[in-house]
Structures are given as C-alpha cells and as structure tokens.
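Subject: design request, 730 residues
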C-alpha cells in the first residue's frame, strides 16, 4: 500500500484535524503579518485624520452654541421684557405683562426656527409664561432645574442642559432673569438639536453625526463637566459610564490632548483611538472615537498589499490541494453509499453492497449498511403488521367513543360498550364493569359478557373497595394492573383466563368503578395496549358520569316543573276564590256555567272544535307552563275558518294566559302593598299614644275600620289565670 492509500485510510476525524490545523496555521500567519504592516503604515494617518475631523466638529458645536446662547441672553437683558417678567412674579394674572412676554417670545421664535419653545419659570419652578404653551406648569422635575439647584447660574452666564431624545429631541438653555434688586426667575429656551426645522444652519446633530469611511467608523459624543462625567450622544444611546471606565472618562476631561491617543473606550471598555477637544461655548468636551483606522497611501502600502497577496495566494493553493484530497478520498465512496442507502429506503436495495476498497470509517460504514439493509426489511414488515393492528385498535376505540357519546342511559351504555370491546379486540374474550356504590364501600358488578357474565350479574357480585383481589386493589389505588398470577385470577368462574387487565374508571373528582378485561393469550396486554384500553376506560368513565348527571338533571327538572305547575294552579285557585269573595261578599261565589266544548278543552288540555252549518265553534284551553287556567270559546264563520285563523286563535290564547298571569301578579302585589301601608298607618297611630287604654281604643277602632266589621273587641288575660279577664274595649 503506497503513501496515498495510507493517507486515504486515515480516519475522517484525523483528516479533518489535519485540514483545520493547516488552514489555521496559514490564516494565523496571514493575520499577524497583515496586522503588523497595517498598524505600522496606517496609524499616523489615522491619528491625523481623527484630529482634523474632531476639530471641525468642535468648531461646528461652538458656532451652534454661540448662536443659541445669544437668544436667552438678549431676552434676559431686554429692559421691557425683564420688567414684564418681574411683574409676573408678583402679579401672575397680569394680562399686560403676560402679553409683553409672549409677544417677545413669539418674535424670537419667528426669527429662530431652531427654537422649539421659550418659557419663563420662577425660582421655585412654576411656569408663568410659555410660547408655545407648556405641557405642565411645574418645571421642578426638569433636568435643568435639578442641575441649577446644585450649581446656580452667576452673572450673565447661560446654562446649557443635556441632550434629551424622548419624547422629542431637545436641549434647554437657561439664563437668569434679574429684577431691580434680586433674581426673579429663569428664562428657559428649548432648542431643536436635530436641525430639521432650519436646514440652513448647522445643528448639534450635525456635529455629533457618526462619520463612516471605507476603512472605519468615527463616533462622537460629549462629556459633561460634572462630577459623574456623564456622556451625551443621540446616535450612540444609551451612554452609561461604568465603574471600570469612570477613571478613563475623568481622564478625558483633565488631560490636554495634543494628538490622538489609544485609551480604553468609555463605551465598550476596549482600547480605541480617542481624541478630545473642548467645546467652550457648550462648556463640555467633544470626544472622537475611531473604531477602525484609516489607511494612507504610499509605497509601504504597496509592499504590504504585495506581501498580503502572496500569502493569500499560497493559502488558496494549499486549500485547493486539501480540497482535491478530500474530494478523491471522501466524495466518491460517500456518494456510492448515499445511492445505496437511498435504494434501501425506497425498497430497491441490493442484497449486498459493492465492496469499498478502504480500511477507514467509510469501509466500516459500507459493511454496516449491508447489515442494516437486511434488518431494515425485517423491521419494515414487522412495523407494517404492528401498524395494521394499531390502526384497527384505534378505529375500534373511535367507534366505541362514538357509541359512548351517543347514549344517555347508564345500563344500555355499559352493555353496548362491553359488547363492542369483546367484538373489536380479538385477544379479549370476557369483559365486565364494576361500579362503586353510593356509600363507596363496594364495587358492584353491573354488566358482563357471555352466559357466565349474565349469571354473575344476576347473583349481584360485589367486591369490597380495597379488598383482596385485583378489583379491590384497583378500586382503591386508582391505577391499572396487569396480572397473570394464578392466585389472583378468577379461575373458578373463568378458567380460560391467562392474563387479566383491570383499569380504573376515574374522573377528575373520584373513582367510580373498574373495567375488567380477560384474555386467553399470556402476552395480550403490552404497554401500548394498556394505554389504549385506559383511554377507553377514561371515555367510559366520563360517559357514565354524564349519563348519571343527565338522569339527575331530568329528574330534578321534572320535579321542578311539577312543583311549578302545582304552585301556579294553587295560586290561581286562591286568587279566583279571593276575587269571588271580594265581588260577592259571600264565602263561596257563583261560577259562570262552562260549555261542553270548554269543559272538554279543559279536561283534555287541547283545542276542541265543533262544526255546524255555517259556523265553527272553537274551544282553546288557556294554558301557562302546562297548567290549564281556563278555556276560551269563539264562533267563527265557516267560510273564514282556515289554518291561519286557527293559529291566530292559539296565539291569542297563549298571550291571554301570559297577560292574565301578569295581571294576577300585579294585583297581588298591589294588595300586598295596600296591606303593608294599612299596617304601617295603624302602627304609626299606635306609637303616638302613651297610655295603654288609649292604645287599645285606637287599635279597636282602626281594626274595625280595616276589617269593615260592625263590632270589634280586644281581651287581655293573664298568662296563668284565664278566668280573670282584662279590660274590654269597643
């Protein structure tokens, strides 16, 4: 075997390691040479370019600040404006002073498009005048206000606040407004840093805009002259100073930069090329940070490019050789194996694979594929058989579930389910269901298959919950049990049983019974079979619970309907008797005679009609919630009698029943209200009396008037001496 074959027999991992190490070595050499030459040639040019750019941006910021600072200074020094603002501090409601201030503010806004708002704020933070109108009248929460409390403005100086980007980009310029003797407040000018309002002028955003070059990026941000040395930039937010970079940030504001220096960046903590220049008009420092250096031209760069090209060319040649090696040793055999594997998956695999003349992992893989091909065909056939069985079982389970969902009575439901289980699952020859009784003490056999099962049901077989045997254990443990132990099998009644599966019938709240399955096959219940039958048991438990709830609800509904009909019948009977007594003044009134058709409609609770020569007499029962309240009889010309007339009469009778019952309820409520009012009136008169004799006299009088009787008396007796009579009042 030659050297090439020996190398071809190396493991794939070994070859990959060789390739990676060779490529990494060439890349490392290339990177080191490139970085060294790049740094040596580009650093001076980068420093010079960064310094020039930073000074240009600093000049822009100074021009912007000078232009904007003049706005609050000129307003604060205007005598008329100062007088108006001083007057507002003492007379906030002065319309004249407010008009002068607003007109002056508006004139400034008209001349300076980059000014967003001008407002006058008292020393305690209250906004007295603003153009446009400020969103709040309290500026104590504004950032500039907190800063001025710790570092007040002196003289004609103007405080320039920090850049704010939410809700709108802005920054505040604050000048102190002086009165005749003392300071009266702050003149706050909110400026637009974006420059969108006035494109003819430079803006703060123009000076802080990131500069992108072909060889790198320069970012700009401001450093505040405060104790925290906070950073500001709308294009690199959020800017935070960590504990590890705080010393670097302070160094930027104290060191005099004559040229750029490589320092840790306050933003990233990594070393970067920085140049800091002061912005006197803003009272801050501008930092220019270069994330990459600019490459300058020259002969040295040409040498660098030539050397780099040689290195890259050498790397390409080496990688090409390595690629050819991998292609000749890996790709052809792997493609051959892929073709064979595809044929095996499609069922067209050959009996044996063509031998691959390699002693590496590919050769071992070819031998393994031969073995897998044979085993795969066997497994496919086995899986097809199992899949057919599983499809049959799932279809049987689906059919059982449909039957379960369609039945509402417990006994027919149980009988149908056990019959289907026995028919659809050939490995099961006997099925029975036990349900726990109401006391929860015994599991009672409710249904079973075959003649033996019918005999057991007739005998009323019951097993104590938690007792000996599989039924008792499952009824208390609530888990399925598969057993082939002869000591636990019911061999006396079912001698052919070789294995028994007992499943709990459980709901979310309780265990209501067990499903008992018997098979003649010792290995009839695998784990998948147990899960399948447990699903059937769970469906059966839910169906039993639903059936019981349905039966209970039907019984309760029938009971409620019966009580409602009885209550409605009694209410109408009492109401009719009361109405007759009220109208006639007798104990029993005289009823109007009923016609034969009305009596028949009342007795049969259905419409009755009688046809004569030219007239149809129709009697319709007046019914409300199943209770017959009466009957209505009407004579209709036969020529006009049809189905529409008949339906109209039915609808009127129904409406009459509802309306009559509503009238009864209203009448009873009125009478109850009258009784309550009468009782309250008598009680009020009684409470006005202070003596017992007067109370008795008023009570006798009012009671007689209320009951409309000619004579009324009240007798008082002692509790233990009935013979002694009290005072009698009339």
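Subject: RE: design request

Done. Sequence follows.
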């Amino acid at each position: 075997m030659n050297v090439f074959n020996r190398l071809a027999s190396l493991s794939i991992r070994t070859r990959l390691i060789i390739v990676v190490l060779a490529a990494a070595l060439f890349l490392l050499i290339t990177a080191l040479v490139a970085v060294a030459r790049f740094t040596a040639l580009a650093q001076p040019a980068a420093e010079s370019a960064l310094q020039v750019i930073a000074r240009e941006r600093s000049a822009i910021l100074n021009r912007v600040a000078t232009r904007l600072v003049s706005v609050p200074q000129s307003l604060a020094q205007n005598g008329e404006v100062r007088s108006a603002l001083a007057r507002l501090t003492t007379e906030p409601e002065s319309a004249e002073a407010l008009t002068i201030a607003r007109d002056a503010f508006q004139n400034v806004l008209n001349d300076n498009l980059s000014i967003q708002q001008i407002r006058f704020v008292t020393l305690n933070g209250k906004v007295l005048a603003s153009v446009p109108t400020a969103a709040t009248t309290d500026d104590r929460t504004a950032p500039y206000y907190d800063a001025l409390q710790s570092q007040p403005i002196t003289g004609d100086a103007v405080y320039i606040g920090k850049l704010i980007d939410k809700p709108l980009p802005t920054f505040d310029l604050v000048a102190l407004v002086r009165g005749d003797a003392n300071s009266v407040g702050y003149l706050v000018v909110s400026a637009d840093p974006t420059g969108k309002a006035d494109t003819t002028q430079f803006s703060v955003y123009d000076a802080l805009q990131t500069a992108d070059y072909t060889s790198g990026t320069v970012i700009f941000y401001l450093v505040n002259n405060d104790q925290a040395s906070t950073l500001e930039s709308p294009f690199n937010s959020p800017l935070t100073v960590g504990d590890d970079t705080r010393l670097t940030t302070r160094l930027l504001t104290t060191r005099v930069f004559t040229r750029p220096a490589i320092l840790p960046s306050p933003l990233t903590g990594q070393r970067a090329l920085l140049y800091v220049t002061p912005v006197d008009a803003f009272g801050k420092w501008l930092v220019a940070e270069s994330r990459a250096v600019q490459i300058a031209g020259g002969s040295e760069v040409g040498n660098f490019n030539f050397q780099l090209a040689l290195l890259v060319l050498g790397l390409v040649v080496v990688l090409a050789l390595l690629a050819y090696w991998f292609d000749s040793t890996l790709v052809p055999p792997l493609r051959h194996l892929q073709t064979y594997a595809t044929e095996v998956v499609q069922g067209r695999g050959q009996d044996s694979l063509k031998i691959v003349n390699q002693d590496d992992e590919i050769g071992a893989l070819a031998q393994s594929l031969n073995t897998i091909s044979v085993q795969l065909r066997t497994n496919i056939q086995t899986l097809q058989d199992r899949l057919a069985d599983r499809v049959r079982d799932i279809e049987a389970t689906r059919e059982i579930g449909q039957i379960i969902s369609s039945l509402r009575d417990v006994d027919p439901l149980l009988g149908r389910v056990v019959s289907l289980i026995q028919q659809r699952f050939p490995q099961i020859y006997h099925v029975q269901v036990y349900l726990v009784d109401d006391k929860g003490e015994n599991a009672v056999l409710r249904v079973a298959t075959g003649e033996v099962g019918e005999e057991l049901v007739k005998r009323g077989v019951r097993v104590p919950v938690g007792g000996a045997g599989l039924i008792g254990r499952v009824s208390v443990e609530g888990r399925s049990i598969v057993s082939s132990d002869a000591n636990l099998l019911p061999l006396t009644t079912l001698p052919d049983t070789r294995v028994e599966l007992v499943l709990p019938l459980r709901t979310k709240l309780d265990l209501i019974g067990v499903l008992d399955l018997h098979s003649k096959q010792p290995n009839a219940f695998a784990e998948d079979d147990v899960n399948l039958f447990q699903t059937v048991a769970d469906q059966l438990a839910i169906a039993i619970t639903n059936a019981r709830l349905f039966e209970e609800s039907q019984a309760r509904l029938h009971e409620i309907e019966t009580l409602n009909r009885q209550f409605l019948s009694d209410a109408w009977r009492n109401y009719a008797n009361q109405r007759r007594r009220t109208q006639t003044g007798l104990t029993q009134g005289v009823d109007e005679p009923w016609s034969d058709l009305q009596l028949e409609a009342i007795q049969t609770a259905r419409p009755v009609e009688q046809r004569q020569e030219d007239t149809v007499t129709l009697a319709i029962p007046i019914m409300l919630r199943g209770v017959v309240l009466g009957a209505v009889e009407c004579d209709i010309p036969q020529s006009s009698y049809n189905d529409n007339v008949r339906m109209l009469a039915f609808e009127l009778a129904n409406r009459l029943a509802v309306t009559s019952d509503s009238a009864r309820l209203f009448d009873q409520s009125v009478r109850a209200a009258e009784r309550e009012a009468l009782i309250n009136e008598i009680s009020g008169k009684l409470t006005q009396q202070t003596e017992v004799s007067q109370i008795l006299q008023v009570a006798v009088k009012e009671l007689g008037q209320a009951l409309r009787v000619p004579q009324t008396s009240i007798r008082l007796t002692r509790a233990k001496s009935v013979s002694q009579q009290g005072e009698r009042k009339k």
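DSSP finds 17 helices and 20 strands in the chain.
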